[in-house]
Amino acid sequence: MMDAAAMTAAEAVSAQARAYCEAVHQANPEAFDHMCHPSFMMTAVAGSGHPVFWDKEAYMRRVAGRDPQIGPASFEILQVDAAADTAHVKLWVDVPPQRFEDYLGFFLIEGEWKLITKLFRTIDGPALEG
Fold this sequence. Notes:
Layout: H1 9-26, H2 29-35, E1 36-45, E2 51-55, H3 56-64, E3 75-82, E4 86-95, E5 98-109, E6 112-124
Parallel strand pairs: 1-6
Antiparallel strand pairs: 1-2, 3-4, 4-5, 5-6
Helix pairs in contact: 1-2, 2-3
């Protein structure tokens, strides 16, 4: 594993994006407690045409209310755009029967990449197993 100090911004943000996908798969609110900045805000683009908003605590409650997924995590990081202290990631992650298409905003604070924004929509995903 590469030393954190030797990682480029894109590599470090990609590692955070993978950790994010694993935490979604595992329904792990503790991972999000560390990963998300206290001012984290999540926005859902709903079919009603009206956005729905959640703060960090509401998001962690949603994650804690789900069961972990079975098997390996299913996700793909589609794009990472990182500068010196800000980054944007586009990815999808499956929570059957839904696939979440996420646009994540990170920023570097005190040497750590923190998740500050999540804009997402749900699309049809894989079927539930079992």
